[in-house]
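Single-chain item
Fold in token form
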Amino acid sequence: MSTVLIVDDEPEIRHLVRRCLQTLDVTCLEAASGQEAVESVRRHAPAVVLLDVRLPDMHGLEVLRLIRQLSASVSVLMLTAFDDSRIAVQAIQQGADDYMTKPLDVDRLVRRVRELLEAGRLRIGLEGMGEQAESDVHFYGLVGRSASIRRVFQWVQRIAPTDMPVLITGESGTGKRRVAEVIHRLSPRSRGPFVTVDCGTLPAHLLESELFGYERGAFTGADQRKVGRIELAQGGTVLLDEIANLPPDGQVKLLQALDEKVVFRLGGTTPIQLDVRVIVASNQDLRGLVERGRFREDLYYRLNVFELRLPPLRERPEDIPLLVEYFLRHFSERYGKTVRGFHPEAMALLLRHTWPGNVRELRNVVERGIVLADRWISIEHLPLEIQALARERLDVREAESFAQRAQALLEETEKYILREALDRAGGNRQVAARLLGISLRTLYYKMDRYFPKRDRRSGPSRDE
């Protein structure tokens, strides 16, 4: 379970934030001063720190500096009652991941903490995978061995070191935000901020001011200057998720920002020079929106310097067993359980399901199974719509597809068991063959089939 540290000298604010985060699977700690916050980070290593700017013993920026000396991986979200653009920019430049103003928008706060937790888990995965980051099935936290997903891995490697705009397309749940994070982490801008804007959840009348910021007096209620999200990403990367929801005026300003590398805050006349890489994502057909006059054609071609299409899960069924294993490990560790895996009948239904929610839906199914099951995840632990597949008959076309998925599952299972036997035998092939109840010749045949020589486990070879 991840830990969130709430740092504020007002007990009412700490209580409010704690209640807001009850919907997340987190443990909340509290600190009333900067010194308490630093000590709590040292002792508990939280995943996210919600840090008030004005504390009784020191300024929030000083606390941020001390936290960063202790940990480079903790995510820090600054909270302030004053929308001070200077402090916001300083906070981002000194290592804060984001900032929010009081009074807090509860829904936005919960959503942002959830995003920071996910980004933190991905960051740990990127740092911990080392030489295994480009194995036969893993690529910096992305999982799969199908031809379509491996092409995505290859293109990410090619485009990450550049500064070109990238358009990531794909259905909801295919991992667009995660791919954008990997592109940023593999780029020369990796030490800069990675700022996300979900254009699909913000109202149209707020979206433009959120992106570009505004000057004091720009409109009724604009009592202080606000720095836009694009400006906050200086030196790093900004992801504009669900870009199709950007209103016409915002499209014009975004096109200007991309062409001239400057941005104007609402109500402002001074151009602000930008040093930002822009990545956009959409689950809609932007080309179709252009043809219907709902998206600017010039902006579409400006964004579509390189389009990276993420395949839906139904197009890569051979990746389902790998993703299941990946999520099993992840959620077993999170919930402290030793669930062995999916019962064969339950796995067969996973292979038959068409996954309209894609990888996100599969992730939720595995998490549900981990919570409900004791040793094996069976059919009764699956959502009702997947359980219903057990009562349906297969037509010829679906039967052929199911056979392919089943074959992929059998091969992946055999490969897993083979690795397990070799690990337990300490690399001794003869011992591994005896554990499996097969001949040494058969063992070598299977190793040649599943593990190219570059991928074989290193270790003692005491075959003779």
In short: The chain has 19 helices and 18 strands. The chain has three domains: 2-105, 134-311, 314-455. The radius of gyration is 25 Å.
